[in-house]
Amino acid sequence: MGKLRFWMGLLLAGGVALAHAQGNPAAGKEKAMVCAGCHGEDGNSSAPIFPKIAGQHAAYIAKQLHDFKSQKRGDPTMGALAEPLTGQDIDDLAAYYSQQKITIEKTEANALGETIYRTGNLKTGVPACTGCHGFGGNGNPGAVFPQLNGQYAAYVEKTLRDFKAGERGNDMNGMMRALAARMNEAEIKAVADYISSLQ
Ligand code: HEC
Ligand code: HEC
């Protein structure tokens, strides 16, 4: 009997931990009101300088908010906004946005962008983006590789340049910094353009 109660207790504790980690999307929706001016009500941002966060993996959104809060990812605006958020707020916001649907941009066919995305650049040692972000740009939630498809090209370009310059340095093991450093301006522009229309 004691043993059974022990296991029941463990199960319950596990369930509570899981619910916490997943966040509450309804609570997140309320907390997202202060975010809507820039990121849109549903995470499809109002201007290309603000990244879309609709449909992004919850674990990635939560990581970024923790990184802004600790200033591991430096951005004065997001740093100030993330500062007062509790762990629960972050989980709730992440749960809400991850359940929204991203809108895909329309761009012209882009051969250079497609080549970089799918095969990289053998000569300069840029790996294929598909290796971590997937063919459709859906990323990998378990590994915390973000979804990219549909993202505004202007933001993708900016963040690739930030990685290249080391201004954004919150990527595990410098994965993105190392490869962005090997990309030239034409490749950055082309791959950003390709990503924004990727279905
Ligand atoms: C005043 C405009 C503004 C507001 C309000 C705002 N953000 Fe942001 N957010 C930004 C900008 C700009 C960036 C991109 C920073 C950069 O270039 O590194 C960003 C980036 C992010 C990112 C990282 C996206 C990615 O793809 O890496 C997340 C997540 C995020 N914001 C969530 C939120 C949440 C949640 C709120 C509300 C609590 C919020 N933001 C409010 C402007 C804003
Ligand atoms: C070895 C795995 C790996 C490869 C290959 C890779 N990425 Fe990434 N990428 C990551 C990780 C991990 C992050 C998230 C870093 C963080 O935690 O902030 C990321 C983040 C990004 C972001 C920022 C997303 C956002 O919303 O801010 C962009 C843009 C990006 N990658 C583009 C690319 C492109 C373009 C390529 C191919 C040239 C590529 N990546 C190849 C692992 C990879």
TrEMBL record:
<keyword id="KW-0574">Periplasm</keyword>
<dbReference type="Pfam" id="PF00034">
    <property type="entry name" value="Cytochrom_C"/>
</dbReference>
<feature type="binding site" description="covalent">
    <location>
        <position position="132"/>
    </location>
    <ligand>
        <name>heme c 2</name>
    </ligand>
</feature>
<feature type="binding site" description="axial binding residue">
    <location>
        <position position="133"/>
    </location>
    <ligand>
        <name>heme c 2</name>
    </ligand>
</feature>
<dbReference type="InterPro" id="IPR036909">
    <property type="entry name" value="Cyt_c-like_dom_sf"/>
</dbReference>
<feature type="domain" description="Cytochrome c">
    <location>
        <begin position="108"/>
        <end position="199"/>
    </location>
</feature>
<dbReference type="InterPro" id="IPR009056">
    <property type="entry name" value="Cyt_c-like_dom"/>
</dbReference>
<keyword id="KW-0813">Transport</keyword>
<feature type="binding site" description="axial binding residue">
    <location>
        <position position="176"/>
    </location>
    <ligand>
        <name>heme c 2</name>
    </ligand>
</feature>
<dbReference type="GO" id="GO:0020037">
    <property type="term" value="F:heme binding"/>
</dbReference>
<keyword id="KW-0349">Heme</keyword>
<keyword id="KW-0408">Iron</keyword>
<feature type="domain" description="Cytochrome c">
    <location>
        <begin position="23"/>
        <end position="101"/>
    </location>
</feature>
<feature type="signal peptide">
    <location>
        <begin position="1"/>
        <end position="21"/>
    </location>
</feature>
<keyword id="KW-0732">Signal</keyword>
<keyword id="KW-0249">Electron transport</keyword>
<feature type="binding site" description="covalent">
    <location>
        <position position="38"/>
    </location>
    <ligand>
        <name>heme c 1</name>
    </ligand>
</feature>
<dbReference type="GO" id="GO:0005506">
    <property type="term" value="F:iron ion binding"/>
</dbReference>
<feature type="binding site" description="axial binding residue">
    <location>
        <position position="78"/>
    </location>
    <ligand>
        <name>heme c 1</name>
    </ligand>
</feature>
<dbReference type="InterPro" id="IPR024167">
    <property type="entry name" value="Cytochrome_c4-like"/>
</dbReference>
<dbReference type="GO" id="GO:0009055">
    <property type="term" value="F:electron transfer activity"/>
</dbReference>
<feature type="binding site" description="covalent">
    <location>
        <position position="129"/>
    </location>
    <ligand>
        <name>heme c 2</name>
    </ligand>
</feature>
<dbReference type="InterPro" id="IPR008168">
    <property type="entry name" value="Cyt_C_IC"/>
</dbReference>
<protein>
    <submittedName>
        <fullName>Cytochrome c553</fullName>
    </submittedName>
</protein>
<dbReference type="InterPro" id="IPR050597">
    <property type="entry name" value="Cytochrome_c_Oxidase_Subunit"/>
</dbReference>
<dbReference type="GO" id="GO:0042597">
    <property type="term" value="C:periplasmic space"/>
</dbReference>
<keyword id="KW-0479">Metal-binding</keyword>
<feature type="binding site" description="axial binding residue">
    <location>
        <position position="39"/>
    </location>
    <ligand>
        <name>heme c 1</name>
    </ligand>
</feature>
<feature type="binding site" description="covalent">
    <location>
        <position position="35"/>
    </location>
    <ligand>
        <name>heme c 1</name>
    </ligand>
</feature>
